[in-house]
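[audit] Reproducing an earlier prediction to check determinism. Same input, same settings, fresh worker. If the tokens differ from the archived copy the diff job will pick it up downstream; this log only records the rerun itself.
[audit] input (128 residues):
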Amino acid sequence: MWYHFLNVFFFVFHTALTLFNCIGWAFRATRKWNLVTLLLTAGSWFILGIWYGWGYCLCTDWHWMVRRHLGYHDESRSYIHFLIRKLTGANLDPQLVERGTLIVFIISFMLSIWLNVRDRRAKRIRRG
């Protein structure tokens, strides 16, 4: 029962985190937290990725452990590829999905940095 709860938890949490990484920069109230989650994601992908492989995601790893315990043998290496397969049934080329994921991440990261810097400068000017 605990593993079934964790499986649902990871579906909800990881999907929400992914969506927040993609669009959290668009809302002034969430921009700082968006930058934090993007930095944590980058740390997992590129720093932990040194030891575990490029694009390593701690959430995906934990979710896969839970799913293996439940008897699922997921073929997708990336969570995004897995999510696309589960939600649409489409089995896209995994490299295409990874490239698309990286492109969306880079765009979101650049927008988050730019908007956070812009907001900070505007705040400093207002305090003047």
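[audit] rerun output stored. Observation attached for the diff report: The helical segments are 2-23, 31-52, 58-69, 79-88, 94-127.
[audit] end
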